[in-house]
Amino acid sequence: MSRPSLGGYGRVRRPNRVGGRAGGVEGDDPTVSEPGFGAYDLVVVANRLPVDRKEEPGGSTSWQPSPGGLVAALEPIMRRHEGAWVGWTGAPGEAPEPFDAQGMHLVPVPLSEEEVELYYEGMSNGTLWPLYHDVIVQPSFHRQWWDSYVRVNWRFAQAAARQAARGATVWVQDYQLQLVPRMLRDVRPDLRIGFFNHIPFPPYEIYSQLPWRRQVLDGLMGADLLGFQRPADANNFLRACRRCGLPTRRGEVVVPDEHSPHGRRAVRAAAFPISVDTAALDEIARRPEVAERAREIRRELGDPDVVLLGVDRLDYTKGILHRLKAVAELYDDERLPLPGTVFVQVATPSRERVESYQALRDEVEVTVGRINGVHGQLGKPAVHYLHQSFPRDELAALYLAADVLLVTALRDGMNLVAKEYVASRFDEGGALVLSEFTGASIELTQAYLINPHDIDGLKNQLVNAVRDAPRERSRRMRAMRRRVWQHDVGRWAQDFLQALERVRPGDDPGGEDGASAPEEASEPASPELVAVGGRDRRSTDHPGSDRGDVDVRDADVRGVGQPVPR
Ligand code: ADP
Ligand code: G6P
User: Fold this and answer.
1) Helices 320-332 and 355-375: crossing angle, nearest 10°?
2) How far is the CA of 69 from the centre of ligand 2 (A)?
3) In whole angstroms, what is the distance from residue 438 CA to residue 258 CA?
4) Are 443 and 449 in contact (CB under 8 A)?
């Protein structure tokens, strides 16, 4: 991978803020908005820092890698470019002072016990996460959760404003912080603001359930550039804007802006599929000790003929139960012979106090127990289930040891595990079974693609992945490896940041002169929405067409309510 050029972002500058602490952005009062300047040209704002604070039994504190794809993707970028990273430590209570670690300036934002419950577990993971993932489980809507979400978003916006140098780039991440772009622009109109949504953006028919649908769009409108995983997500977003009365034209939303000479500004929305640090993963996998560990894992599993692997956060979006069902039936049918086959499911603990996650864990563990009860032998379980996190090297060894990786997500913004597996298979071995409802499936088209709801189809593809000739498996893996080498995480960040740099704040976006397309004529803005949001909205503006810009193949409503097929 060539080291990406990010146009000089992230170099640490000498502090140039005015006054003592970045003046006027302290406290939780959104009316206090005198801007100050920080020291960083690139500031990332994410709900989580790349490290989690853990209280050890003796009272000491340790730092461990944070879970999830967002951190996995951004960490290598930020390490290389010495930016500031504003985020939560993963534990409630007071936040430690900002500190430097591994080339990053980490700025902890505190969350109280109550905010963890209302903002993080509630609004973020009880409302937005299920809503944006096709309502696989029912989202809950609570006004108290929303109030906490607004307060916490404001705190993140303030923290970012304190770190950003004059004219800096601030890159806001993911669904937990959708109000930050607008809040930040209000206090720091000098900034260039980008936002990237790591998860899907749902079709309007689903999005419209959100009681604060207009306020969330308004929050996002503070950005200059909005990045999505798939063209379909960008398209869903633009359609939501039109339905809520915001004019769009050619992939942009035109919004009023008192700081712009033309009184308006364009917010661009486009797809920037995220990726992995291919060179780093390839390098780890080539280490002799990792290869040795991979062989050892197979020995520990009893030297089976076939090792199947699943690696996920324990989340209902990942389709773990669908996968278990398919594997169990293949054991029943003896199409996967036992004890020659083993299935290893690694499931990182996640959001453990949220009810739907507790219910999923119970169901997964009962199912694994049932399969092992029927198909296991003494010392030879048919499914190895590990509810644990592992270091990078161990994951790499697992990837190398696996004949087939099963990614059966019901909906997933990208699924970096799929790309990590491909990046690690320098030997061109292994096979990837991949759900078509992942962002990754758009790029990794040589995978054994499946619809996880179609259990028979999933079983057939899994058997193909196991039985296909090595030449065929290598051919597919080679093609997928080409893709992840060409589009690695460095390229993703470079593409996004360069597109953000191209935004010229003074440009006239040209008004809302796009011709109304016929489908939009039948999709008027919902009149009751237009007044919501508290800003100057020209509700009668006719939306322009952006349909031609974005791939709309996936923009339909898919898979509402997702029981495991019987
Ligand atoms: P999500 O972001 O929804 O968790 P992704 O597949 O995009 O899903 O990213 C998951 C990330 O978490 C990957 O980088 C993967 O390596 C990491 N991961 C998943 N399971 C584990 C585990 N048990 N231990 C350590 N890291 C894990
Ligand atoms: C996904 C989300 C991230 C989130 C991660 C882990 O990758 O897109 O925003 O950080 O999951 O989830 P958690 O709730 O533990 O932060």
Assistant:
1) 10
2) 7
3) 39
4) no
Task: Tell the residue nearest (CA) to atom 11 of ligand 2.
Answer: 68
In this structure, the number of other CB atoms found within 10 A of the CB of residue 428 comes to: 15
Percent residues over pLDDT 90 in the chain: 76
The tokens of 362 are what?
Answer: 């119970």
Below-50 pLDDT ranges, the chain: 1-35, 512-524, 526-562
CATH topology of domain 6-229: Rossmann fold (3.40.50)
Task: Give which of 66, 57, 19, 56 is closest to 38, Cα–Cα.
Answer: 19
The residue type of 87 is: G
What does the pLDDT read at residue 347?
97
91 CA to middle of ligand 2, Å? 14
User: 126 is written with which tokens?
Assistant: 């009880």
Q: Which two tokens stand for residue 350?
A: 């996640």
Taking CA atoms, 167 is separated from 164, 270, 311, 404, in Å, by 8, 23, 41, 48
Give the residue extent of every domain in the chain: 6-229, 278-487
Nearest ligand, CA of residue 412?
A: 1
CATH topology of domain 278-487: Rossmann fold (3.40.50)
Ligand 2 in reach of 412 Cβ (< 6 A): no
Instruction: Report the residue count for the chain.
Output: 566
Report the C-alpha dihedral over residues 234, 510, 527, 137, rounded to 10 degrees: 10
pLDDT value at position 225? Answer: 98
pLDDT of residue 11: 36
Provide the pLDDT for residue 235: 98
Does residue 69's CB lie within 6 angstroms of at least one atom of ligand 2?
A: yes
CA 254 to each of CA 222, 227, 511, 528, 550: distance values in angstroms, whole numbers, following the listed order:
11, 16, 7, 20, 17
CA of 390 to the centre of ligand 1 (A): 10
Distance (angstroms) between ligand 1 centre and the Cα of 432 equals: 16
6-229 matches 278-487 in fold? yes
What pLDDT is recorded for position 62? 83
Say what the pLDDT of residue 57 is.
Answer: 84
Instruction: Quote the tokens at residue 566.
Output: 């019987």
- DSSP assignment of 439-477 equals THHHH-TTSEEE-TT-HHHHHHHHHHHHHS-HHHHHHHH
Give me the residue label for tokens 């809302």. Answer: 512
Q: How far apart are CA 213 and CA 233, in angstroms?
A: 16
Task: Give me the sign of the Cα torsion angle 184, 127, 241, 134.
Answer: positive
Q: Is the peptide bond before 339 cis (omega within 30 degrees of 0)?
A: yes
